[in-house]
Amino acid sequence: MAERVRFPSSTGPTLAGVLDVPEGEARGWGIFVHGFTLGKDSPAAVRICRQLAAEGIGMLRFDALGLSDSEGDWGDGSFTVKVHDTVAAARFMAERGTPVSVLVGHSWGGAAAIAAGRDADVGAVVSIGAPSDPSNVERHYDAVVGRACQDGSAEWLIGGRALTLKRAFVEDVRSADLTDKVSTLDRPLLIMHSPIDNTVGIDNASEIFRMARHPRSFVSLEGADHLLTEPGQAQRAARIASAWVEPYLR
């Protein structure tokens, strides 16, 4: 069962989300943090959250600032805003009586989930295909980054959508550093990554694992592409996460 929800972002505009609710009694609740510009309705987000709900873990997936059904301007977001909005989502879940046990982040969202883990007060964090350096996303908009820095903003076309890249966004992403966030996470961390990921290389998983403290786990998603579009790959990742997170569910 899916329930549409809305809650305030860390900067003011309202964020739109979908709550995938288990049919029976919930074992626990979690939040899914989507990739860079993917949104709550991206295939990985939908398939992972629905599978986790089928496994008894209710999941909130929400659109980042200015994407799809959320209010605001995407260019006013950043890595820091994404992290703070994840914490805001956890606060929303607690206020509605479904406190969150786990953050599950995919791609850039995996890095944000790690960075938000302590402040979101969750029991565990799961990253899927996460970069060890959030600033790696600059290669996606490198054709317009110079103009954005010089003029203050620049229009950026991606996936048939026009987004506004702003200087403050670029500067925030460039200054993002996971090193301290990983080493001081103080939460169990499951790192999942495909060895054939051509978008975010497997060396990123190795670096995150190296920086993390125990309890930490690594699972190789053999045969999966970065977006988990191959049949069954997203569901497989969800089933692995469901089993691993069991001791940390509230």
TrEMBL record:
Q: What is this protein's name?
A: Alpha/beta hydrolase
Q: Which GO terms describe its molecular function?
A: carboxylic ester hydrolase activity
So which domain of life are we looking at?
Bacteria
- Identify the PANTHER family for this entry: ESTERASE ESTD
| Alphabetical list of InterPro entries matching this protein | AB_hydrolase_1, AB_hydrolase_Est10, AB_hydrolase_fold
Q: AB hydrolase-1 domain: which residues?
A: 31-230
> Gene3D superfamilies from the xrefs?
alpha/beta hydrolase
One Pfam match, given by its short name, reads: Abhydrolase_6
The protein's organism comes out as Ruania alkalisoli
Q: Which UniProt keywords apply?
A: Hydrolase
